[in-house]
Structures are given as structure tokens and as C-alpha cells.
Amino acid sequence: MSIASTITGNLDPLFHPAAHYASPDDVLNDGDLSVPEKRIILSSWASDMFAVESCPALREIPGVGHTLRLADILAALRRLDGEDDDPPRPGGVPMRRPWAAAQRQSV
């Protein structure tokens, strides 16, 4: 066993998630974590503090040997909330309120 694996074995996953998880799916699949604990880890990874300066859609988490896509982290947070579908696309048509149009016509 290496020194690194001995050290990381003593770390709490909540306080040092990069020592225990390599991806958002690893966090979601850990049965020992509660939903709020998973949310804390994923939210911290989504933070702009870890944004790659030249590519803000990526996150570089210290201790994880590769960059993570922000979209993957946000998708994991949505799955945590039971929302498996993709987020709405921006620039959609605003909802119309039929009662507002009726009020304008009656005035």
C-alpha cells in the first residue's frame, strides 16, 4: 500500500471528496452518503472556484486526475433531485397568459 492510499484512506469523503470519487456518478452511487452530503460535494465541484480559466464549462478539482464537465456535475445534481430530463433550452417562447389578453381587449 502506498503512502498516498494510506493517507486518503483516513480522510472523510465529505471533506476530501476528490480522494474518494473520480466522477459525479461515483458520488451519486455511494450508498454511505446521504442526499444532502452528495449535494454538498457536487455543489462544491460545480463552484466557479474550480472553473478552468480558458474553458469555464470544465472543472479542475484538486486530487481528481482529470477535468470534469460542468454539465455532468449539474446533471448529477438534477438526478439527485429526481429530475432526469435535460434542462430547458434558453430562448424559449414566453408563456402566454390568456386572461391578460382578455383583460386588454375589455379595456
Structural description of this entry:
- The N terminus is likely disordered.
- The chain has a three-stranded antiparallel sheet with strand order 1-2-3.
- It is built from five helices and three strands.
- It is mainly alpha-helical.
The proportion of residues forming helix, as a percent range, comes to 40-55%
The largest pleated sheet is described as: 3 strands, antiparallel
Order of helices and strands: HHHEEEHH
Alpha-beta classification: mainly alpha
The N- to C-terminal Cα distance equals 80 Å
Give the neighbour order of strands across the main sheet.
Answer: 1-2-3
Mean pLDDT figure: 76
Total number of distinct structural domains: 1
Name the assembly state: single chain
Unreliable sequence segments: 1-8
Strand content: 5-15%
Total strand count, please? 3
Q: What Rg, in angstroms, do the CA atoms define?
A: 20 Å
Coarse shape: globular
Number of helices: 5
Region (Disordered): 81-107
SSE blueprint:
Elements: H1 3-9, H2 24-28, H3 35-46, E1 51-52, E2 55-59, E3 68-69, H4 70-80, H5 98-106
Region (Disordered): 81-107
